[in-house]
Amino acid sequence: MEEVLESAAIVTEERRIYFIYWYNGQLIESQTLELSINDPGLLYGATIFTTMRVYENSLDSRLTHWTLHCDRLLFSLKAFSWQQPDWNRVRQGAEILLQHFPILRITLFPDGREWITGRLLPEDLSEKQANGVVCTVVSAEYDRTLASHKTGNYLSPWLARNISLNLAAQEAILVDQAGNWLETSTGNLWGWRDGFWWTPPLTGGILPGIVRSQLVKWLQSQQQQVKEEPWTMELVKEFTAIAYTNSVVEILPIHTVHQPVGSLQYNPHHSSFQLLRSFF
């Protein structure tokens, strides 16, 4: 009986922790967030956000990239002429939540309010990192608006990913009007060909991912060439291995890509992944 009560207490505590977040200077224990019915964040998705993985339980860890995530937010704040938050309060909320979650999502509203939530790493992340995932190419209509910013209006990538899940895939690949591959719904693309890595250029209208930028710099410091060129239909057929990266999953190989006509197969165990993984 005591073991049952102890297990129930653990589950209750886990649920309690999961339903906490930081909002506007306060730690809140709830499953809901109260917003005005006229809040532009609610009406139009007028927010910006960044999602980080906390390493070594520290915002100052080399791989957490706290400063880069704050710089991403500041870049959008200045571009939109929005009010800056109290950065000390943002850090305070992040410090509290990282005690419970390895992944933090920091959202800012136009008037300077901050909202920080946390979540756990996907349970199957290690298996996906080892063996790869399936992706589906979706229609060009599912493009991200304001591609160089992470805004709360994330409907297109969300819809694209749901389409891929319904087709038994784990991710969606977004394309431009010419059919060039741009990025996945949650990360930046990488491909291996001719002895070095390729990634779509920022000029194509993709998110300048933090992991992407750091990997490019790191590979170049290792005397490794990185090709930033459009991923045409001809080019993607020539890759031996491909993957996508973001701050949460690090690097995930892709073994199959379903297209409107036919599928492409790649090697998720290619030796080239060892180099990228050594960055982490």
TrEMBL record:
This is Aminotransferase class IV. Belongs to the class-IV pyridoxal-phosphate-dependent aminotransferase family. The keyword Ligase does not apply. It comes from the Bacteria. One of its GO terms (cellular component) is cytosol. Keywords: Aminotransferase, Transferase. One of its GO terms (biological process) is carboxylic acid biosynthetic process. GO terms for molecular function: transaminase activity. SUPFAM superfamilies: D-aminoacid aminotransferase-like PLP-dependent enzymes.
